[in-house]
Every structure is written in C-alpha cells, then in structure tokens.
C-alpha cells in the first residue's frame, strides 16, 4: 500500500517541478532564450533583405540592359576565351548580353590548364618560338617573354587583321594540338576579346603576360571574374599589375549586374582601354562613358 507520506512526497516533487518551470520561464534564462530568438530572427531578416536587394539589382540590370547598351556593339564580334575553371553559366550569360547589345560571338575558346601551368612553360615557349617563325618579321615582338609571345599569337589567331586567315587558323590548330587551347570549328575575325577567369587562381606573371600579348594584337580586351576574384583573387592581383592599363577588368560577373557591366566595358574598349569596374572596381561600378 502507498502510504500518506508517499503521497506527500509525490505532490511536493510535482510542485517543485512546476515552481522550477515558472522560475525558468519568467527569470533570466527566459530572457536569454527570448534574446537568442530575437537575434536569430533579426539575422534571418537581414539575410532576406540582402538577398532581395541583390535580386532587385539583377532584375534592374536585366530590364535596363538594352537601353544602356544602345546597340553600341552593333556590327562588332567578340571572341570569348574561358580560362581553366571558368563557370559555363557565366560564359553563356555574357554571350547572351553581347547579342543583346547588337554584337555577336565570333567564337568561344577554352584555355587548357597547360597554358597557365608554370610546369608547362617549356612547352609554351617552344611552341611560341616555332609559330613565330611562320610569320613575317615584326608581327610578333622578338623580345617578347614566353607568355607575352603566346598571348600575341592567340590574339593574332583571333583578330587575323595582321595575318592571313589561313595562318590564323594554323595557329589555332597548333594551340589545339598542343592542348593549350580549344578552338571552335567555325570562327570569324574579331576586334574584341573577353577573357573569363576561372575559380582557380592563375599565377599573376603568367596571366599578365598572356593579357599583355592579347592587348598588343587586338583592339580591346576585357577580363571578367566573379565577386571573390575581385575581392582577393586573380582579378584583385591583376589590377595591381601594369597590364591593368591595357585591359579593362570587371568583377562580379557571376551576377546579372556584373554581366551587363562586362558588356558595357567591351563597348567602351572599342575606344578606351583599361579601367577597373564592378563591386571592387576603382573606376566605379559601371562604365557608362
């Protein structure tokens, strides 16, 4: 039989449990719980506001793009060179914006890892020397460094205004044969080159040499990277190099705003070279001039 004492002990235990619950629910611990819940809700709200603002910016850029372009690329072709690790969606997104600006894509080329791998410098140097001998004197600088020279040759193979179409095609075939760069089956002459950086950083000296060579043999070069590359990645390092005066750079190309900015930079490069644009750009967010 359960004694009266057992009933009393059980009731006391129940009341103690209730009392502890009341204290916790109305005391300092409850305030901590409510504060944590409030902070969490505030953090979620701030994240949603940031996401909404970014979405608004992208929507605005997409809607206003054609007006901003004003067909400034009408009649102009752009060659796109994607570096190792470049995002395919970014490449196709910018290509679509080029067409929206009245331009066309002359061809999309894919740089292979060997082109920018320091351990393959001997291959790049040997091929560059061989290809240079096939061209007239003075077309490629005899004092050019390994990567400057290969950059000049790539530029000549894309623009073709200083060499015949057959020689331009021969250079592209040689680059493909050495697994340095893929080439489309059909390609047309171009004055503008867009280089889309990949997620993996490339040695600053190698990238600078390639871009310097490209800039020597084409009308305008624009280099696009994602937001991270502009903050502390390859694009950030490139902007500190002398070649930044010869090529335009645009970060945040992984967003609609950045892709529209990239095309505006391409249009600008028909007359003005250089410039740093985007979220981390020193010359402003967007080149409107």
Sum up the structure in keywords.
single chain; 289 residues; alpha/beta; Rossmann fold; 2 domains; six-stranded parallel β-sheet; disordered N terminus
Topology:
Elements: H1 4-26, H2 28-69, E1 77-82, H3 88-100, E2 104-110, H4 113-116, H5 121-133, H6 146-159, H7 165-177, E3 192-196, H8 204-217, E4 220-224, H9 227-232, H10 234-238, E5 248-250, H11 256-268, E6 276-277
Parallel strand pairs: 1-2, 1-3, 3-4, 4-5, 5-6
How would you portray this structure in words?
With 289 residues, the chain is α/β, with parallel strands linked by helices. The chain folds into two domains: 69 residues; 206 residues, 3-Layer(aba) Sandwich (Rossmann fold). It has eleven helices and six strands. It has a six-stranded parallel beta sheet with strand order 2-1-3-4-5-6, sandwiched between helices. The longest helix has 42 residues.
Q: What is the structure about, briefly put?
A:
This protein is of the alpha/beta class.
- Count of structural domains: 2
Strand order of the largest sheet: 2-1-3-4-5-6
User: Helical content, roughly?
Assistant: 55-70%
**What share of residues are in beta strands?**
5-15%
Largest sheet: 6 strands, parallel
**Averaged pLDDT:** 84
Uncertain residue segments? 1-25
Number of helices: 11
CATH-defined architecture of the largest domain = 3-Layer(aba) Sandwich
Order of helices and strands: HHEHEHHHHEHEHHEHE
CATH topology of the largest domain, what is it called?
Rossmann fold
């Amino acid at each position: 039989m359960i004694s009266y004492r057992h009933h009393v002990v059980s009731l006391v235990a129940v009341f103690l449990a209730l009392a502890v619950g009341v204290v916790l629910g109305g005391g300092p611990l409850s305030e901590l719980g409510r504060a944590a819940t409030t902070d969490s809700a505030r953090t979620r709200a701030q994240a949603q506001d940031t996401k909404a603002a970014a979405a608004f910016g992208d929507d605005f850029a997409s809607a206003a793009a054609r007006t901003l372009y004003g067909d400034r690329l009408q009649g102009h072709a752009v060659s796109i060179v994607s570096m190792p690790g470049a995002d395919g969606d970014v490449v196709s997104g910018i290509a679509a914006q080029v067409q929206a600006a009245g331009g066309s894509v002359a061809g999309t080329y894919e740089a292979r890892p060997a082109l920018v791998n320091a351990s393959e410098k001997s291959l790049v140097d040997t091929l560059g020397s061989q290809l240079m001998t096939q061209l007239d004197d003075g077309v490629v600088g005899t004092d050019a460094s390994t990567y400057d020279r290969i950059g000049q040759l790539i530029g000549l193979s894309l623009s073709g205004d200083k060499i015949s179409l057959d020689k331009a095609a021969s250079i592209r075939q040689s680059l493909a044969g050495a697994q340095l760069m893929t080439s489309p089956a059909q390609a047309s002459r171009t004055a503008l080159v867009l280089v889309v950086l990949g997620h993996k950083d490339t040695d600053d000296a190698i990238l600078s040499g390639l871009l310097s060579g490209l800039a020597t043999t084409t009308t305008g070069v624009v280099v696009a990277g994602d937001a991270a590359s502009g903050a502390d990645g390859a694009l950030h390092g490139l902007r500190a190099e002398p070649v930044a005066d010869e090529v335009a750079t645009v970060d945040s190309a992984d967003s609609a705003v950045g892709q529209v900015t990239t095309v505006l930079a391409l249009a600008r490069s028909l007359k003005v070279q250089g410039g740093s644009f985007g979220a981390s750009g020193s010359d402003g967010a967007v080149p409107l001039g």
